[in-house]
Design brief:
Chain lengths: 210, 306
Amino acid sequence: MKKRNLAAGLLACIWVASVQADPGADVYTKGGANPAALACLTCHGADGMGMAAAGFPRLAGLSAEYMKKQLLDFQSGSRAHPVMLPIASALTEGEMQSVSLYIEQMTTPVYPRINRSAEATSVGERLALRGAWERNIPECVACHGPGGVGVGAAFPPLAGQSSAYLSSQLIAWKRGTRTNDPNDLMGHIAKSLTDDEVKAVSDYFSGLGQ
Amino acid sequence: MKIYLAIAATLIALPVAAQAPVAMDDQSQLAPSVQPPAGADYFQPPLESELPDNAFGALVREGRAIFVDTRNRAPEHVGNGMNCTNCHLDQGRKANSAPLWGAYPMYPAYRSKNDKVNTYVERMQGCFQFSMDGTAPAADSHIMNALSAYSYWLSTGAPTGEVQPGRAYPKVQEPEGGYDLAQGRQVYEEQCAICHGDQGQGQKSGEDFVLPPLWGKESFNWGAGMHRINTAADFIKESMPLGKGGSLTDEQAWNVAAFMNSHERPQDPRLIDGSVEETRKKYHANDGVNLYGVEVNGVVLGQGAD
């Protein structure tokens, strides 16, 4: 799972090249009409799986609706980020729509669907599978799905993201630089987590399926 | 139309007739939860890490797993998309969300209403039949043994036969002028639909419901305690939106509970001779505030949704 082999990578490139008729594919591989809308592929990878070491998240496996919302949120500043702000601002709404739909159909690895019936001993496992209800923190899997595979249009996957990316988001909520979650459903949870818990639960989800 | 309804009612009644009657034939309302005395905390159930590594620990762990993953672990007894923990939050541990430690020490329970005594297992069988819209496991089945062991263990140190603060749900007063379905819809759209779906259908990941259905064929049936608007309002005010319990006003909780319970759901398994009217008379007329057999927007509710 961890090491995707060269053949698969090559196949992905050929496949990407063969569907250039899709305007979303154009944005993804070459960038938007405005040159400031850099090609997504540069950072998020030909396979959409991101680059863990650089903190670039995976986009493959995210819902189109969620991605389009994030792009609008980068643009409006409710999700502050120095790299994605200029890129999102340079995309037209039509480009956002088509690139999100394009990314949504990328194939993704399969992650283990660990639910609340599993044992939980470590700090990360306990937050993910038991929550911390004395602080009004539900089990992460109650919204993000078993194994954090994501649910519907509103709840993005956590599995398959790097620990660095997951903690950066939780910290962004704690610091108030990410405030884009609907009805503060996620923000109040991140704010109640200690720094050690942020690391533990991020390690837990990034480690699934590895 | 009338004929069609009669046929539909017979069709619904047929499979029900084959079902074994349950010893506890309703989900009677519990007295509302009370606060602990000043300075005191709610009862604290033991920690999972304290469970022994022996046959008892194993049975308790199995009971916990069934409670949170009922659809997968007791599939032949679950007729809808629910798991026990969907209404008994934090795996049946959370005070004010009908915790198992508040329940277990209160059985066998005497009920003057019908001069009967109901056991703990019968109470759980009731939740299988109504809340889970399924068929109850036998009293001496492994599933019931495991669920009982889990409840017994959660109650470690709790006094027997004494009502604990935090049992059941805290009462939410009905708004002065009654509830308002239109306002309930608005609360639903703004605060609930993102999770429970715009048709109350819940949301799945693969085959598993992650966000449980609130109405329709995959939800609790018309005999479940949650079909009472007052009980649903109590639960919702305390625990919804998930993780943000206590954020709705009493009025919002009542309005949205009424909106939720003004939709169709699986038929009451106690349906008498296919007649919603008879069933209302016997089981619903004196059961809190509910809309079974009541006309809403020109339609009589209680037709079922199977």
